[in-house]
Amino acid sequence: MKPRTLQEAVVYFADPANCRQYAIEHRWPDGVVKCPRCGSANVAFQEKYNRWQCNNRHDRRQFTVKTGTVFEDSPLGLDKWLTAMWMIANCKNGISSWEIHRALKITQKTAWFLLHRIRLAMQPDNGGKLSGEVEVDESMIGGLSRFMHKDKRERVITGTGGKDKTTAMGMVERGGSVRAFVVENRSRKELQQKIREYIKAGSAIFSDELASYDGLDIDYRHAVINHAVQYVNGNVHTNTIENFWSLLKRGLKGTYVSVEPFHLFRYIDEQAFRYNNRKVDGGDWERCSQVASRVLGKRLTYAELTGKVGETSNN
Ligand SMILES: [Zn+2]
After folding, report:
1. What pLDDT is stored for residue 127 in this prediction?
2. Distance, CA 48 to ligand 1 centroid (Å)?
3. 217-220: long-range contacts (C-beta < 8 A, 24 or more apart)?
């Protein structure tokens, strides 16, 4: 019985046997537990410690379902991890660490760290180049400093040379997937390099009249919509990518509120994950499973996340 709603998921993940089985099936897709060190399936489960021991002779023979994944070294139970995973995979506007703090009875700081490790699992693999009809657009995100304390604001703004907005670039294949990320600037070199990296030559590209897109018609069919004149001209528009930006900004303004530019890419990854899995068969269960099957081989320590030890954040 697969849960279909959050309420059913909470009940399902409250059972340790369900959690263990779920985690096993998603990190070892054939359902066979294998030693992360040597790959052997000749392992023995130690019920008392909730771990396995490899029967081959080598260092670090003991492992748990968390070893080598985003869950590694976390004292939190899988019941909390998997419930949080279900929520962030399925809440359209994201879910804040304050909400997770209240829902799962863990500290806000722990919830914040947990959510970022789940976002790491949500980070897209290289899913191949976009093709067909592709809309391209950039968006300035921020003015976020207004949410900061005055002392911090002065420090941050001085530190970044007076700029407090971050530039994001997005590309969406109509009827397909989005690719979105932070870019250095809106220069022709930067934007066109990304376009060539992510969009198959010969595709149709739709953009606004930003001069940085000039010259794309050598490798692509490029149509420009002049937003000073109109927003849609037949099939020439950028409404699909603009819809993605408004979803992203709704989460940033309504749910997360005080995201620092340093962490912005993780929230973009999160929104892109939900967008790209919006039509999966199996709904909420399948979206959660998509995240659960990407936890392997990814680590994020608190120091790596914050850029320095001891700093915390508030969203
Ligand atoms: Zn082994």
Report:
1. 78
2. 20
3. 220/195
